[in-house]
Amino acid sequence: MNTTFWEALGALSPGRVCLFFAALAIAFAFEFINGFHDTANAVTTVIYTRTLRPTPAVLFSGLMNFLGVLLGGTAVAFSIVNLLPVDLLVEGSSSRSIVMVLALLLAGVIWNLGTWWVGLPVSSSHTLIGAILGVGLANSLATRGDFSGVNWSKAADVGLALLISPLLGFVGGGLLLLLMRRLVPDPRLYLPPAPGDDPPPWIRGVLLATCGGVSFAHGSNDGQKGMGLILLALIGFLPQYYALDLNHHDLAHEVQRAADQITRQLPDSDGVPPELRRELETIDRLLADRSNLAEVPAADRWEVRQSILRFRQQLKKARIEPGTAREITPALRTLSHAIEYVPLWVVVGVAVALGVGTTIGYQRIVVTVAEKIGKSHLTYAQGAAAETIAALTIGLADRLHLPASTTQVLSSGIAGTMWANRSGIQNGTVRRILLAWLLTLPVAITLGATLFLIGGWLTGGLSTP
Length: 465
Prior knowledge:
Blueprint: H1 3-10, H2 14-38, H3 40-48, H4 54-71, H5 75-81, H6 88-91, H7 94-117, H8 124-143, H9 152-183, H10 201-237, H11 239-242, H12 251-265, H13 274-287, H14 298-317, H15 322-339, H16 344-358, H17 363-371, H18 380-399, H19 406-420, H20 427-459
């Protein structure tokens, strides 16, 4: 955090400062809970195949989660942020902005804690996204009388990813196990370990690698969801501080040059709406004679950010030749760098919260995943197949900049291996897990909307259309 952050914080009233730090605490708590709620899936196989004892297993997983957050990038975080048209956080009253942030944070924590308490492996991704949708819808309905409070195109992409990922887990886990049977016909791999048995050294190495891979992928993907939460808190409480990346020297010059370059390369044709050039002119005017974005007056920072966002949105709808689109892509990346960034303290804080959370409270979910999905003990091959598919699926989601549910992918993968191994599935447990999965999105939407409306009523931050 730099002096600009503290200056922005100092402009808030003491009550707002307390609420801001409460919002940060709740956001970090969400990632802490996510650690022991979701990462239990990653350590289940190494614990139940006796590859590692529980304590070293969760410490290893916690370390890999920590590294996944630090090294996994930030693109998924902005998929979360962009679910909510963030201009809603600054268009209305500051009281409403604060209530929106606190409501979505509390909704996520309440549902995650409740399902952990009863030992159900539900999706933290669904919980978070449902809370964001609920808050966005409640805000737009209460203040505008419409459904504009959600970025529906981004919500459709995210929803499709969360729907497909468990199917990939189930089918992929089952098919990989069948392939392993053909390629590695060692009967020890496909039978539950006998009391006192330890896995062969090579399968121990495979299980350690897949556990590490799932944990790293979980940190990379789910850690970015925590970053997204904190970014929403920054936007809601300190929009002028977070509007632009203030920490890179000469970034204002680079953004201005990028805007000029795009202006020169855009053709004068009917396919290019005049709004595009107006947004570029606004960026150029507000950044004139500035070398660092910190030199931009606080009142103008949000306008620069919004001009960049509007330009990108309008460009997607414009009829631009493919050659021109390729030519301006580097300049577009420069514009995005100015507004899509995650402060280092956010990355490190989320990494610590997720890593430490992984080492605590994992037992409830581990027992459900390992003992109550299938009718028999987890085998070495089932653990390796399920975790390999989970790591690959979550890694693919990272590459596509989409959130994926570790819980759904790995639980589905284990169920798929149980089916392929003809071990049998405990229908009662599967029904409970499916019911929790089905309820998560509507419950989180309802919780987020209800908490927002109650908070808005108490603070007087809502006005009806």
